[in-house]
Amino acid sequence: MSQNLTTDRHALPRDFSDEVRAVIGAFAIVRKMENLMEEEAFSVNLTKQERRMVLFLDPPRRMGELAKWMGALPSSVTAMADSLADRGLLVRQRDPQDGRAWQLALTDSGRDARDETFEKVEKIFRTESNLTGKEIRTYADLAIKALPDDFFTDETGEDPK
Questions:
Q1: Measured between alpha carbons, how far is 39 from 121 in angstroms, rounded to an integer?
Q2: Which domain holds residue 91?
Q3: CATH of the domain at 92
């Protein structure tokens, strides 16, 4: 049985500031979720980075924008895109805003893998965090608020929405 995310929350030294505790907590949650996701059985076998890519591909995105959202090098995004395309999970298509540019889009199989990932992330997080639905919403709102100002911009500096 996995150890709950909140089991050892009181073991931190008392002199840790709220900021340090927040960072330690965020790292612990990410590490725990990544470990538990790797233990999960999925219908499509994807690496952690490939699964992250699939999550960010709705709507379709250009590779440079996707690399920024994933915190990855463009060359690694290209290699992952090739692998996912070879397995029928995504396709390259012309960007409707700029016919010279290409973007990546999920196929039906890719959307199924994305949906399955969301379902498992949500289930594991609810179980392991011991947070109520309201607390999860508050945590999510605060986590998004704390993102860097440029997180939601594409390579041109524009919000892609």
A1: 12
A2: 16-145
A3: 1.10.10.10
